[in-house]
Amino acid sequence: MPEVPSGEPLSDLEKDAIGEIANISMGTAATTLSNLIGKRVEITTPRVAITTREKLQTEYPLPYVVVDVRYTEGLAGENLLIIKKEDAAIIVDLMMGGDGSNPPAELEELHLSAISEAMNQMMGSAATSMSTVFQRKVNISPPSIRIVNFAEEQLDPAIEYGCEQLVHVVFKMTIEDLVDSEMMQVIPLNFAKEMARGLLGGFEEPASPPGASGAVSSGPSRSSAQVAETAKTADNVVTVQPAQFAPFTAPSKPSEIANLDLILDVHLEFTVELGKTKKTIKEILELGPGSIVELDKLAGEPVDILVNGKQIARGEVVVIDENYGVRITEILSSAERIKSIQ
């Protein structure tokens, strides 16, 4: 790897490598977010710089939603994904069936759960892309989420792993005509250098924590070889261009998810719940033929329709020939479905 000039924590080649990794992973994350909210999402080529906690708080003195992403397999480290509070509120409104024009003024627990699920899916797809880049399985733990006012609070010092300097990656993020803002990624310097090394020349040793399985180091990936070849140009003059991606166009309908055909034969448990009640053990033991159990639903009230134990709709019981059936009368809204998984 080229030597880093005195006083510079990252070489230009390392910065370009980090930018390429971020570009690929966030491009995939944008596609995932677009599918979740049914809007066109664009995340532009990133800008990579070195910063510190103090500098970050001075330059961005606003409340932000901070998502802590920890890598559990294939890479050993963590990074923060940071978006403005008002941008997160718009995303939540879209996820809960709104049009983005009436976001919640304050993010409550339900809203944080929704944005956490969005970030979980975004970073999960980003980890899959990184698996391809590094040619090793990369996994993350479920992200944790919190609201931080940088004017009053500091980032968790644990993110720095004892290093004062952080790698600050800034993306421009647009969601049609609703959001025109920035999203940030903050990476500990040592972890960023480890990822750059993996792209440029392969990992020198397994990066998975002890006990992790499935992480296989297979040397430089194709991208690594291309970047390494570029580094061999005359007089070590390096020309590395970030990967360019065409803008992602959202599906015409939110339900039209790419490659859905791949899972159409997956079996799900479809249940119709007439009602339920609670009984003590004594009352259960007293049941016998002819006993009547009163349920929590009134006669004629819609029954609940569940898929894999999660309610998705309501309906009414019908008789088809000699079999019972259910006619769907109402599909739950996004907000109601999110409540059902709490």
CATH level 1 class label of the largest domain: Alpha Beta
Helix percent band: 25-40%
Low-confidence stretches: 1-6, 206-239, 252-256
Global structural class: alpha+beta
Radius of gyration: 25 Å
How many individual β-strands?
12
- Give the overall shape, derived from the CA principal axes: elongated
Number of helices: 8
Mean pLDDT: 77
Estimate the strand proportion: 25-35%
Please name the fourth-level CATH homologous superfamily of the largest domain.
CheC-like
Largest sheet: 8 strands, antiparallel
CATH topology-level fold name of the largest domain? Chemotaxis protein chec
Architecture per CATH nomenclature, i.e. the level-2 architecture of the largest domain? 3-Layer(aba) Sandwich
The overall number of domains is: 2
Distance between the termini: 48 Å
Order of helices and strands: HEEHEEHHEEEEHHEHEEEH
Structure at a glance:
With 342 residues, the protein is α+β, with helices and mostly antiparallel strands. It contains eight helices and twelve strands.
